[in-house]
Amino acid sequence: MLRKALIRAAKTPPKAETISMTIETKRIIQAVKAVPPGKVSSYRDIALAAGLPHGARQVVRILHSMSESQHLPWHRIIKADGNIALREGAGRELQIALLRAEGVEVTDAGHVSFRGKG
User: Fold this and answer.
1) Per-residue pLDDT reduced to its tens digit, 96-109
2) CB neighbourhood size of 53 (10 A)
3) pTM: predicted TM-score of the whole model, two decimal places
């Protein structure tokens, strides 16, 4: 169900304030914004929803460079194996805290079970 919502969001026409971005960037941003509180998605699934089957690294770059300016829920995007990509001391603790605040079960090691998350 979450995957269908991500695909729908990526196909929605982008807002005018994102005009100077590539269409791929706009679709990635829309797919990231479509992940609701309390849910997670993977870099791979965001890329697929944006029509970029090999675009997981592009998703990472966009999240790294545009999360603040585009108000992206970066913390809801994790690796396909269910682990948080950030290292300890480099944002992992913040991501765990933000996910837990939304009701997502996250281990202290930074693992999220995708079961029931979308």
Assistant:
1) 999 999 999 999 99
2) 9
3) 0.81
